Amino acid sequence: MDRDGCFLGPDRCAEMFALADHSENKYPVVGWQEMGKIEHAHTAGQEHIDALLTLSFVDVELIRSKKFKVCLDSVNGSYKTHPFSRSHFDCCQVREAPL
Questions:
Q1: Are 95 and 70 in contact (CB under 8 A)?
Q2: Phi, psi (5° rounding) for residue 32?
Q3: Which of 7, 31, 45, 81 has its CA 20 to 30 A from that of 75?
Q4: d(Cα 97, Cα 72) in Å, to the nearest integer?
Q5: Which pLDDT score is estimated for 73?
């Protein structure tokens, strides 16, 4: 994901892979035992939603007016953000895909 919340484009992907390929000394590869600590980002879901709603190309009122029916695929982790589609976009959730 890029800083605007969208997936990386081809140029940014190439830049990221080049950085990873040539950074052995700057970012050494270590085993999981040497990684550091786990941090829980309890507000990450809401922060993501807030950022999404500020994108210039997301027209919330237009989306609401369409009264879309949606099927949620929780993608092994984004499950916590699912009320977003109903509450912000006034969508009807038809079915939730199993985890």
A1: no
A2: -60, -30
A3: 31
A4: 6
A5: 64
